[in-house]
Amino acid sequence: MNIPGMPGMGGAAGGGGNLSDQQLQEQKVIKYIQAGMESCAAKTVMAGVAGFALGGMFGLFMSSMRYDTPLSGPLNASNPLNPANTPDISTLPMRQQLRLGLRDMAKTSYSSAKNFGLIGAIFSGTECTIEGFRAKNDLWNGVSAGCLTGGALAVKAGPQAMALGCGGFAAFSAAIDWYMRLPEEERRKNVI
Amino acid sequence: RPQPTSAEKIAAAEIEIEMVSDMFTRLTQSCAKKCIQNDYRESDLNKAESVCLDRCVSKFFEVNLKVSEKMQGEAGRR
User: Fold this and answer.
1) DSSP labels, chain A
2) Which residues in chain A are contacts of B24 at CB distance < 8 A?
3) Which of A13, A17, A64, A110 has the fewest CB atoms within 10 Å, i.e. the most exposed one?
4) How far apart are the first and last CA of chain A?
């Protein structure tokens, strides 16, 4: 149909006539995959994985800075639970030192990775859900998601810590979103 | 019952196409005005816009349906 008033339907009808069945099927599958990529679940998973990776690197970096604090375990002479004559870590052979040091780095890195991954997943999931309910795209989505994330992270430390976490994270998210959404230099005109 | 002639069928098809095309134009204009703000930065629809458009199109058709039911009721009464 070559009617200018219906470009959408005309395009679909014309496309159906030119492509084979298999190509139509492939296009449908591609469209479903793309729609799935933009769903809230996929965004949550991706943010969680990215947060995990970032947190891992951050934890690795942080643990490498802590060369002067005693490592956990019975091999520290100043450990009050073990007043026996156990050697300090610096007296161990090099391989043992390396092993203990790497184990400590891995533990710190893993705990930091879990923390960051959880933050990313919860924030992204709640923001996407709130945006889906409100059908509006402004910075209040991020603020509410930040409040919920901060509260969820501090849930074991009581209601005051939850309120503090909510306020802090919401303020942080509001600041970042406000900066990202600053209008460009040029003046905006209305589209329609 | 006399069957409609081909000229009548063509006329009916033309009227239908005009009606459908008019409805499509109204639908896109009103839903775009409602759902798409004028300060966007990317060409893809974000989640809020696509959800809003889904709801807007469904509501438009439901409104259409209800209004046409009422109108048919009115026409039937007269």
Assistant:
1) ---TT-HHHHHHHHHHHHS-HHHHHHHHHHHHHHHHHTSHHHHHHHHHHHHHHHHHHHHHHHHHH-TTSPPSSS--TT-TT--S-PPPGGGS-HHHHHHHHHHHHHHHHHHHHHHHHHHHHHHHHHHHHHHHHH---STHHHHHHHHHHHHHHTGGG-HHHHHHHHHHHHHHHHHHHHHHTPPPSSPP----
2) 5-6, 8-9
3) A17
4) 27
Mean of per-residue pLDDT scores for chain B = 93
Instruction: Report the alpha-carbon distance of residue A81 to residue A144 in Å, rounded.
Output: 46
Q: How much is the ipTM here?
A: 0.76
Cβ of A9 within 8 Å of Cβ of B24? The answer is yes
How do residues A24-73 score in pLDDT, each as one tens digit?
Answer: 999 999 888 888 888 899 999 999 999 999 999 999 988 888 766 665 54
Has residue B28 got a pLDDT over 60?
yes
Q: What is the domain partition of chain A in residue ranges?
A: 24-68+89-135, 138-184
Q: How many CA atoms lie within 13 A of A97 on its CB side?
A: 10
Say how many CB pairs under 8 Å bridge A and B. 49
Least Cα separation, residue A41 to chain B (angstroms): 13
Whole-angstrom distance, CA of residue A18 vs CA of residue A188:
41
CA quadruple B46, B49, B55, B60: dihedral positive or negative? negative
Closest partner residue to A38 (CB to CB) among B25, B47, B52 is B47
